[in-house]
Design goal:
The chain is α+β, with helices and mostly antiparallel strands. It has helices spanning 19-29, 68-87, 119-127, 145-157, 168-186, 189-197, 222-231; strands at residues 41-45, 50-54, 90-96, 105-114. Among the domains are: 19-130, NADH Oxidase (3-Layer(aba) Sandwich), CATH 3.40.109; 187-241, no CATH class. It has seven helices and four strands, in the order H-E-E-H-E-E-H-H-H-H-H. Helix 6 packs antiparallel against helix 7 (222-231). The longest helix has 20 residues, at 68-87.
Length: 241
């Protein structure tokens, strides 16, 4: 059996087999962000392990033709799995790309040594259900220096570079590039159809896709938003933004 969404129980029972706690962690892994909230992952439990596969049936061939963002989305789910495991007192042993003949088999996960979760582990876990993605206007305020420094430190720990742009001129230049990219994308009917196919109400049984409130509209207007995206022209030709 394969799991895309979580299993109801969220804690480790004392008499659980080794595989059961891993399956329970899936509840938190599937709350990870993904492109268009496609949730392009499958978790398959084994006897003493949990396998993570990329689900190509949920690919976005127009906006993500090489599957790069799909793989990143699966990596986010794997990170959520590790965060949840640390909260519940276990490290994970992760074997990346365990099957050379199966490129969609991204990882095999096993429970590792027992640990005592630190303050950071607890804070990260508690943040998982509160994370959200929005395309509405951001608040027009300066981030505190303490938060910026913390973000840089976390990026350094992960071996990546974080650039926080505060110069007003540079911010407008970046905003202009983003707006131009939006115009180019929305001028493509294929992009609009693909995006519209994933706009749906949060009341949908599938629990995936993008709610209308992510675009700054009411959730109940999601079907109307999808219709608008699919049929209206945006971009340089139409003069839209």
């Amino acid at each position: 059996m394969a799991y895309r969404s979580g299993i109801r129980d969220t804690g480790f029972s004392g008499d659980a087999t080794e595989a059961e706690p891993l399956q329970l962690l899936v509840n938190h892994a599937v709350l990870a962000p993904s492109g268009h909230n496609t949730q392009p992952w499958l978790f398959k439990p084994g006897d003493r392990f949990l396998d993570l596969f990329a689900d190509r049936s949920r690919a976005l061939p127009v906006v993500d033709p090489r599957g790069r963002e799909l793989t990143i989305s699966c990596g986010a789910a794997l990170e959520h799995l590790a965060i949840a495991a640390r909260f519940f007192g276990s490290e994970l042993t992760i074997d990346e790309l365990p099957d050379p003949s199966g490129p969609d088999h991204l990882a095999r996960v096993r429970l590792g040594r027992r640990i005592t979760p630190g303050t950071g582990d607890i804070q990260m876990f508690q943040t998982i259900p509160n994370r959200s993605t929005t395309r509405a206007w951001y608040e027009n305020r300066v981030l505190p220096d303490q938060l910026c420094n913390r973000c840089r430190a976390l990026a350094d720990q992960s071996g990546v570079e974080l650039a926080l742009v505060s110069d007003e001129k540079r911010r407008w230049e970046i905003a202009g590039l983003v707006a131009e990219g939006d115009r180019i994308q929305f001028a493509d009917p294929g992009f609009r159809r693909e995006l519209a196919a994933w706009v749906r109400s949060r009341r949908s049984k599938t629990r995936d896709g993008i709610s209308g409130d992510a675009f700054g509209m009411l959730d109940v207007l999601s079907p109307l938003g999808a219709l608008t995206i699919r049929n209206l022209r945006f971009g340089p030709e139409s003069g839209g933004g």
